[in-house]
Amino acid sequence: MNAPTASGSTLSVPTVKLLIGGEFIDSRSTQWRDVVNPATQAVLARVPFATPQELDAAVGAAQTAFKTWRKTPIGVRARIFLKYQQLIRENMKPLAAILTAEQGKTLPDAEGDIFRGLEVVEHAANIGSLQMGELATNVASGVDTFTLLQPLGVCAGITPFNFPAMIPLWMFPMAIATGNTFVLKPSEQDPMVTMRLVELAIEAGVPKGVLNVVHGGEAIVNGICDHPDIKAVSFVGSTKVGTHVYRRATLAGKRAQCMMGAKNHAVILPDAHKEQTLSQLVGAAFGAAGQRCMAASTAVFVGESQKWIPDLVAKAKTLKINAGHEGGSDLGPVISCSARDRVTTLIEAGLREGATLELDGRNPDVGAYGKGNFVGPTIFSNVKPSMSIYEQEIFGPVLVILSAKTLDEAIELVNSNPNGNGTAVFTQSGAAARKFQEDIDVGQVGINVPIPVPVPLFSFTGSRASKLGDLGPYGKQVILFYTQTKTVTQRWFEDDVVTGGVNTTISLR
Predict the structure, then answer these.
(1) Residue closest to 103 by CA, chosen among 37, 16, 153, 182
(2) Does the predicted model carry a pTM greater than 0.70?
(3) What residue ranges define each of the domains in the chain, with the CATH number in brackets?
(4) How far apart are the first and last CA of the chain?
(5) Which of 225, 258, 293, 337 does the annotation list as catalytic?
(6) Of the candidates 413, 474, 459, which has an alpha carbon nearest to the alpha carbon of residue 439?
(7) Residue limits of the Aldehyde dehydrogenase domain (predicted)?
């Protein structure tokens, strides 16, 4: 099928399918969007904005599948994810190539994207030891109490463009492994690698209707939030959309977890290991063209460490800007023309507001890829908290630098920012690191680690304005998110034992 364009003609590009009830189907939508290579502007595919009827069909398929899937033995579920992780490993290179073509990040970074999702799949395969309840015997005379962690039903996930492999893999494997069924809405900007991962999940043995996929924009997001048969919604994306999703979904009686925007600070103390610190800071600020919710987009140089800024700029200048599939590239393009324009506009705002532009990444020379959405590494110093480049999440390769006289002042600065996704301190002092980890009001803390995203044994624990909902994605917390606790209290009597008379008190004795 060729997808219709706005003018009614057709393009000879592939169309992205929906997955409903185990079948990959063509949408009947009249609204389509191009999937564009951000380095070349080539149209790779067309993605439909699913109709309300198609969303209903996906949810209906999931609801039907839940009746049997919820009773599927844990071992059967676990073996599917053992097979799934094997298939992902075997397809790592082609998956990374798809991801790079539609999202823009470098091939090594694309493989990293997939690998961090693969870790969650491996964790899902361990569901037998994760979804265990509790038991207490003889809580009263002959009475036992135990808990069951039972699945909720149909759950849904809404994922962003910046990690089209990792974040879907944060969501549906854990939801499905715990006995739920799932409706996934990938980013409409780069859905192709997500769909390939979904195909591999079906190949691994996920039954029909257990995993479903719809595409779209605001209307589908609202439909997911409102649908009476969806019990829980997981979201990763911008603060504006995440706040909307949380409010609308919880108003409809759903569980919701929303991981949102950030302004992550890296605090550099004068006793830090200089070369390692600056190298890690450059990588964390500019990797993936800064399009990470955990990017170290803000540096706070404390005291004498401010003298290191020229060395930081020199390191940033060595980064190679090119299409992500080209060997040796360090930065690819940002996702879209509008994203590039927004980053450029904020750089210009920083200049107007009086920040010092140490390194200008506008209009970089990328040779044959002049049509791409490229912004090079950009560094501002002398940034004040009132400036727009500090107040807003730029989501591009722009590092803003603030200064502080002491560690206490730096901690106060970080805590004054409304966001709380992640932060890091660079120091060789155990006492300073301990003070930082105790006094900082941010959910995820790195000590000489610039991007402190935990492995799946732990949960992603952003806080404050970066997160809505009590329970984070993956890890132990997500088991609680995707299950409900049922408590059973039981007593058994022998046939020939006669108990006392009627007891009208609440006591179990």
Answers:
(1) 37
(2) yes
(3) 18-260+475-487 (3.40.605.10), 265-447 (3.40.309.10)
(4) 70
(5) 293
(6) 413
(7) 25-488
Q: Is 258 designated active site?
A: no
472 touches 130 (CB < 8 A): no
Alpha-helical regions (H) of 70-106? 74-90, 92-103
pLDDT by 10s per residue, the chain, length 509: 444 444 344 458 999 999 999 999 999 999 999 999 999 999 999 999 999 999 999 999 999 999 999 999 999 999 999 999 999 999 999 999 999 999 999 999 999 999 999 999 999 999 989 999 999 999 998 899 999 999 999 999 999 999 999 999 999 999 999 999 999 999 999 999 999 999 999 999 999 999 999 999 999 999 999 999 999 999 999 999 999 999 999 999 999 999 999 999 999 999 999 999 999 999 999 999 999 999 999 999 999 999 999 999 999 999 999 999 999 999 999 999 999 999 999 999 999 999 999 999 999 999 999 999 999 999 999 999 999 999 999 999 999 999 999 999 999 999 999 999 999 999 999 999 999 999 999 999 999 999 999 999 999 999 999 999 999 999 999 999 999 999 999 999 887 766 667 878 777 66
- Please return the burial class of 476, using the count of CB atoms within 10 Å of its CB with bins 0-12, 13-18 and 19+: middle
